[in-house]
Design brief:
mainly alpha, 482 residues, 68% helix, two-stranded antiparallel sheet, 6% strand, two-stranded antiparallel ribbon
């Protein structure tokens, strides 16, 4: 049955599935690592126990999400040598070094200090433990730096030459490759999106517990209130910044990848005297038109070129073979933008409630925040789809086609591994996600229990003293007698 499918299409679906699944975890842990560092810093500064309770509450969730992100990333990377070996051969001399630096610097920085962050508070002292929290937070952003640099080069390739005999991309200027034209915009946009993703997950969890405690006529705990307040501050401050960065990124994309912008805007036709901003429409690649179009005249020209009457070229200037799938790009872009403005709305709503002194007594705000909890994850996936599908039909934009990048594999072989990935991913990562949701379903409690780095069995990594120091306070007397 799989033999009737195209091997390249199946390879693209497999990579899209694995990279989308993987991207969910870094999008959460990048922001959560920084949140944990802030919580730990506030605990050391103020000695208010609510910050320590929140740190212990979220560090358990971080540990699971981080582990799933690492495992899913390793699995994804193997596809460069299987399904996309031709791409790896041709682009490897350029992208190999930045990807290696990501592992050697960023990932080792995260992994090296992760154990201290999770288990070392009572072992190494508060100062070094705080340093470990900062190292993990910096490491997650540094990891994003290298990966986004590689991906950005594939969109705006510079600093290379092509070997006439092998067709390989050979590096000429390493720093030009790293800091390629789209990289700064893509990095800022992606990292900011990760912070917003974390803010809305944290805010949604806090809103769930605020609603539950309200339903039980209980007073919300200081930790829950603080969690919601910090999340809403992040939403109110970062959401408008993200929209501004998105506008800059869009202008940069228009300069370097105009075809992608044509697909995002649904502009099948060129507009010589101002292009409309289409709010709705059904892209039709066969007829090369946007059916049932509903738009605002000239607004697209104003946004993209800051001139109502600025001309914008359309897909009628691009050969059909060089056009991306417009419908996917068009709708993914609108999902991303729509959720971005919804986030801004929640942030402004929270400011209004805070100003009125009703931030913790606004059930409709809490319901809206709960509904928006997964919005960041959906938005980053929609943005990723917009970016990557909009680059098609190329892997290296304008230079190496996707059809010429795939390994010479048969469709049944690719399809079989795709099915295996789907089954295993949903089983393994589904279980991990279920456990994270179970942890989130319980509110942070006073004297939130810590992660234990020793077992109750006879094996002790740090000896009897370590077991004693890490035990809950109430168990000290028992261990002393034992």
């Amino acid at each position: 049955m799989l033999g009737s499918f195209d091997a390249v299409l199946l390879a693209r679906i497999q990579f899209a599935f694995t990279v989308s699944f993987h991207f969910l975890f870094p999008a959460f842990t990048i922001g959560l690592a920084s949140y944990l560092a802030v919580l730990n810093g506030l605990w050391l500064w103020t000695r208010e126990h609510k910050y320590l309770d929140l740190f212990r509450y979220w560090v358990k969730i971080f540990a699971i999400a981080f582990a799933m992100g690492v495992v899913s990333g390793i699995v994804m990377s193997y596809q460069f040598g299987t399904n996309w070996s031709v791409f790896s051969d041709k682009a490897g001399p350029v992208i190999g070094a930045p990807m290696a630096y990501e592992v050697l610097s960023a990932f080792f920085l995260e992994a090296g200090f992760l154990g201290i962050m999770l288990f070392g508070r009572d072992k190494v002292g508060e100062g070094l433990h705080m340093g470990a929290c900062l190292a993990v937070a910096v490491g997650t952003v540094f990891s994003a730096f290298w990966i986004i640099s590689v991906n950005s080069w594939m969109h705006t390739p510079v600093g290379f030459e092509i070997d006439a005999e092998t067709g390989q991309f050979l590096p000429l200027d390493f720093w030009q490759i790293v800091f390629n034209p789209s990289f700064p915009y893509r990095l800022m946009h992606t990292v900011t999106a990760a912070y917003l993703t974390t803010a809305f997950i944290v805010g949604g969890v806090a809103a769930w517990h605020l609603l539950g405690q309200r339903r039980k006529r209980q007073l919300a705990s200081p930790a829950t209130r603080t969690m919601f307040s910090m999340a809403m501050w992040m939403a109110a401050i970062v959401a408008p910044v993200q929209i501004f960065l998105g506008d800059l990124h869009g202008i940069n994309t228009l300069e370097h990848q105009p075809v992608k912008v044509m697909a995002m805007e649904g502009h099948y036709e060129s507009h010589e005297n101002g292009a409309p901003l289409y709010l709705f429409g059904i892209p039709n690649d066969e007829t090369q038109r946007l059916d049932y179009a509903l738009g605002i005249p000239k607004l697209s020209s104003l946004i993209l070129k800051h001139d109502l009457n600025a001309p914008l070229a359309g897909l009628d200037t691009v050969p059909d073979a060089d056009q991306p799938p417009v419908a996917i790009v068009f709708w993914a872009f609108r999902i991303m933008v729509g959720l971005g403005f919804a986030m801004l709305g929640i942030g402004l709503w929270s400011l209004w409630a805070r100003w009125r002194g009703r931030l913790y007594a606004a059930p409709w705000l809490h319901r809206a925040a709960l509904a928006m909890a997964p919005s960041g994850l959906i938005a980053v996936l929609a943005g990723w789809v917009t970016t990557e599908v909009g680059r098609q039909p190329f892997t290296v934009y304008g230079l190496l086609r996707t059809a010429d990048s795939a390994a010479p594999l048969d469709a049944p072989a690719v399809g079989a591994t795709l099915i295996a990935f789907i089954v295993v991913y949903f089983a393994v990562f589904g279980a991990g996600t279920y456990y994270i949701l179970r942890l989130m379903s319980k509110p942070p409690s006073p004297d939130e229990p810590r992660l234990k780095d020793v077992s109750d069995g006879p094996i002790r990594s740090g000896g009897r003293a370590a077991a004693y120091d890490d035990a809950p306070q109430g168990a000290h007397a028992t261990r002393t007698k034992g």
